[in-house]
Amino acid sequence: MEDEVEEVAKSVMETITDFLNYTFVYNDKVSVTVSTLLIVLVSLVITSIVLKLARKLFTRKLPENDKRKFISVFSYLRWLVYIIIFFVTIHSSGVNVTAVFAASAALLIGVGLALQTLFQDIISGIFILVDQSVHVGDIIELEGKVGRVVEIKLRTTRAVTIDNKVMVIPNHLYLTNTLYNWTENGIETRESVSVGVAYGSDVQLVSILLLAAADENELVLEHPKPIVLFTDFADSSLNFKLAFTLSNSFDVRFVQSDLRFAIDKKFRENNISIPFPQRDVHVYRTAINEDIDKNKKRSKDLKALKKEESNFDKEMKERNEENRHYNALRVEEIMNKKGKSKK
Q: Could you tell me what percent of the chain has a pLDDT over 90?
């Protein structure tokens, strides 16, 4: 009985050993056994457990905002650790890793080129999270587009525009373009409205009216106070700029519109006109103009000559008609005289 049990156990062990030693052959230099795959699987499971414990250990005392940033970076570092553990494990199990890389060189080059932009986005995302140049809630301007940041990830940043449209920004654009962070120094921003008035206007009155328009707007902050700048003596106008402060930059275009309405109303009430560009055009006579005048004169002379010829032809026709009539009367008179002489 014991011999049979030993034989069965020995048979089972041989079967398990044969299964574990079963080899998957890729080519002459690369081959992987089942035992190697199991070792890799166990190593990855252990690594995953250790990484989860490490993440909990590092994030337990972090603020919620910093915790989200750390988890975003940690998620990509985790995959890097998995790749390193995978290759170290199969190399320790006897697999020629160099041969694997050599056999997959063309594939890896293609994947690297295809993922070039992805890696740029990830690296840029790490820079953003580390140097904290952009935070959730900041109002940013990039390539002429303005939005409020609602989410920062390693590959992309999501922002909501003034028109309530979601703008997905690849993070590598932060490295290749100039980024304006409107709220880096606080939520208050300095805005302005420009206007021009006609020459001869009372500039002091203009300044008073502009400040009054800003003071009447509820969204314009009292401190710092609005100011008026006399910016330029332009070609057609005296240019002014009304500078004011807002606590919400997303409302800037609405506040600017309200201020323009108020400024126009106050200017009309005080007889201050907003000019439009005017130009004086001076025409100088040239050789070409003289030739044109000569041609016009010749054309008029030709028309007058044709008119004289027409009048002459008409007069000749009238004279010929009179001559025919006169001749007819003479013939009739002669015939009458001959008839009387015969009698």
A: 19
User: Is the same domain home to 200 and 244?
Assistant: yes
Examine the domain organization and report whether 216 and 170 are in the same domain: no
pTM above 0.85, yes or no: no
**Is the distance from CB of 65 to CB of 134 less than 8 angstroms?**
no
Beta carbons within 8 Å of 192's beta carbon, 6+ residues apart: 241, 242, 243, 244
Query: What value does the mean pLDDT take over residues 53-75?
Result: 73
Given a cut of 70, whether residue 324 has pLDDT beyond it is yes
**Distance in angstroms (rounded) separating the CA atoms of residues 120 and 142:** 18
> Which distant-in-sequence residues (6+ apart) come within 8 Å of 138 by Cβ?
148, 149, 181, 182, 183, 184
3-class SS string, the chain:
CHHHHHHHHHHHHHHHHHHHCCEEECCCCCEEEHHHHHHHHHHHHHHHHHHHHHHHHHHCCCCHHHHHHHHHHHHHHHHHHHHHHHHHHHHHCCCCHHHHHHHCHHHHHHHHHHCHHHHHHHHHHHHHHHHCCCCCCCEEEECCEEEEEEEECCCEEEEEECCCCEEEEECCHHHHCCEEECCCCCCCEEEEEEEEECCCCCHHHHHHHHHHHHHCCCCCCCCCCCEEEEEEECCCCEEEEEEEEECCHHHHHHHHHHHHHHHHHHHHHCCCCCCCCCCCCCCCCCHHHHHHHHHHHHHHHHHHHHHHHHHHHHHHHHHHHHHHHHHHHHHHHHHHHHHHHHC
**Residue 34 and residue 89 in one domain:** yes
- Examine the domain organization and report whether 58 and 82 are in the same domain: yes
Q: Are residues 89 and 42 in the same domain?
A: yes
Range of the domain at 225: 189-269
